[in-house]
Design goal:
With 125 residues, the chain is an alpha+beta fold. It has one domain (13-123). It contains three helices and three strands; from the N terminus they run αααβββ. A three-stranded antiparallel sheet has the order 1-2-3. α1 runs antiparallel to α2. The chain is rod-shaped, with a radius of gyration of 25 Å. The termini are far apart.
Length: 125
């Protein structure tokens, strides 16, 4: 086996050690990217729930409660627990507004990312 020229024996494996030091940073960036996606999805679902609740409340004789319609329109894993998703109505003379407030799930247990809020207004029939 021939000895490589220009490198000492101590430098062998240096790239592997540098790579191992970089892996935690890559994992952190990956977790943050996933968390950002979960937060965006939660905000989207809050908007969907607010629209469904406001649409239902805009009818004279709705077949279901607006809060139930809002929860049914959202993904189950975001709206199952009443503490994680709430709907706040605001009735006007000729319109109704519902605000959905949904807790953003955390990828890392123990960290809280707050709530996503979206509102929707529909004319009353």
């Amino acid at each position: 086996m021939s000895e490589r020229t220009g490198t000492s024996r101590r430098d062998r494996g240096q790239v592997a050690i540098e790579y191992m030091g970089f892996i935690p940073l890559l994992l952190l960036v990956g977790l943050l990217a996933i968390q950002l996606g979960v937060a965006a999805y939660t905000a989207n679902q809050a908007g969907t729930g607010a629209r469904a609740a406001a649409r239902t409340a805009s009818h004279d004789m709705p077949l279901t409660l607006p809060e139930e319609a809002g929860r049914e329109a959202m993904s189950d894993w975001l709206s199952d627990d009443p503490r994680d998703a709430s709907f706040i109505p605001s009735y006007g003379i000729d319109e109704v507004t519902y605000t959905a407030r949904v807790k953003i799930p955390s990828v890392v247990p123990g960290l809280s990312w707050g709530y996503a809020e979206r509102s929707s207004t529909f004319p009353r029939e």
